[in-house]
Design goal:
By secondary structure, the first copy, chain A, is of the alpha+beta class. The first copy, chain A, has 2 domains: 178 residues, NADH Oxidase; 36 residues, no CATH class. In chain A, 38% of the residues lie in helices and 14% in strands. In chain A, helix 1 crosses helix 5, helix 2 runs antiparallel to helix 5 and helix 3 packs antiparallel against helix 6. The first copy, chain A, is globular. Strand 5 of chain A pairs parallel with strand 1 of chain B.
């Protein structure tokens, strides 16, 4: 467990991180190989979890009738959310492709079950939300594993969780955390779609790092690394 | 962006996933190289985020006085949470090493700022928590990048967020999501500590995967992959 990573192994990890995309419009119809999908799910299952509670489940969905119902929930929610933004942003918003529910090979709903190994879970008493945070870590493992295997993934968050729970028969105490679309893709875009269309810019790393306290940028202990980050030295 | 991953590159990614540990007792005092820390932070910053909102900040902490205050919060919360569990689990719980706040080289508090690029963030209207989910994806990127660089990471969740906000001067509207300890380590353990001490077992993958609906295991569409997962075929 302790040998260092070779340069190729490191490159593999960073390649997954930097070329991972939220895929909406580039799905291809061919199925995902069973072994590939198992590997992706197994990577997700090896995420960290608070108190080793492993509170996630993965519901794999192919059925078209189920997906059509999920797509209806998306359509309703998109219409509703469009009322929250003013033109010209509204028109731009409505022109964006934001889901691949029917065009992807497989949908996966990832859920959080707070009762698993409960009620006392080590590390979850002070901040109960950490159970959900564990599920999100599993989702990111899943996403990166998919990229490594050449499989695209899109997270659809314009959905009603009430609808999802009804459609997938999820019990009252379980929380749907993510609805994911997976499949082969015609390409992984060079940049995130929302960056390409000019919706929002990518922030510089220097804009998200503070030193010792919130909003503090000038702590002398951190001068050297701060210089490195500000000058955008090639740390990628 | 589209070439396939070589076998070595894939191995690198999976090696990070399967050998990543939540480190508490194996930290070494030597500092983390600035370039390494920058690379780890940059990987975190390249996580997916709802509506490309990049709502995370990373507060880097070395100051011993700050860390002592955080350690006090941990001690208080651990005592409090121990009252929630009965012996013999309580004694076992209290014997576990659960943080490396002072023994690690650097602490990092990762926060969520819902006002960034807001109030309208694409994909956050139906499920507002997706902003927090994005921050968790960044944390998992950070964790895996650290492992790739040979740096251990421990997530301390036995803390009061109110204490953290006071200590780090985090404004009212910003939410602390994770308090992380990073540093070189004497070893990455073969298994999670809580598995080793027999606190909880690792679940089989078959126990967390459903087909088409919650709790459904026998959908014929999925027979083949289910067989693969149940028989624990070597998908790792």
């Amino acid at each position: 467990m302790n040998e260092e990573f070779s340069q190729d192994e490191k490159n593999g990890f960073y390649k997954a991180v930097f070329s991972r995309r939220d895929v909406r419009s580039h799905f291809m119809p061919e199925p995902i190989d069973d072994k590939t999908l198992s590997k992706i799910l197994n990577a997700a299952h090896h995420a960290p979890s608070v108190g080793f509670s492993q509170p996630w489940n993965f519901i794999l969905i192919k059925d078209v009738e189920t997906r059509k119902k999920v797509k209806e929930s998306f359509d309703d929610e998109r219409k509703r959310s469009a009322t929250l933004v003013e033109d010209p942003k509204r028109t731009k918003y409505l022109s964006l492709r934001l889901e691949g529910i029917l065009s992807s090979a497989v949908n996966v709903c990832v859920t959080y079950d707070p009762t698993k190994f409960g009620p006392f879970v080590i590390g979850r008493s002070s901040i109960p939300e950490t159970g959900i945070y564990s599920v999100c870590c599993a989702i990111q493992n899943l996403w990166l594993a998919a990229r490594t295997e050449g499989i695209g993934l899109g997270w659809v968050s314009i959905l009603s969780n009430d609808d999802l729970k009804k459609i997938l028969e999820i019990p009252e105490h379980v929380v749907p955390i993510a609805y994911l679309c997976l499949g082969h893709v015609s390409e992984f875009a060079e940049k995130p779609d929302l960056e390409t269309v000019g919706w929002l810019p990518r922030l510089d790393l220097k804009d998200v790092v503070f030193y010792e306290k919130w909003n503090s940028l000038d702590d002398p202990t951190w001068n050297q690394i701060r210089q490195m980050i500000v000058s955008n030295l090639d740390y990628a």
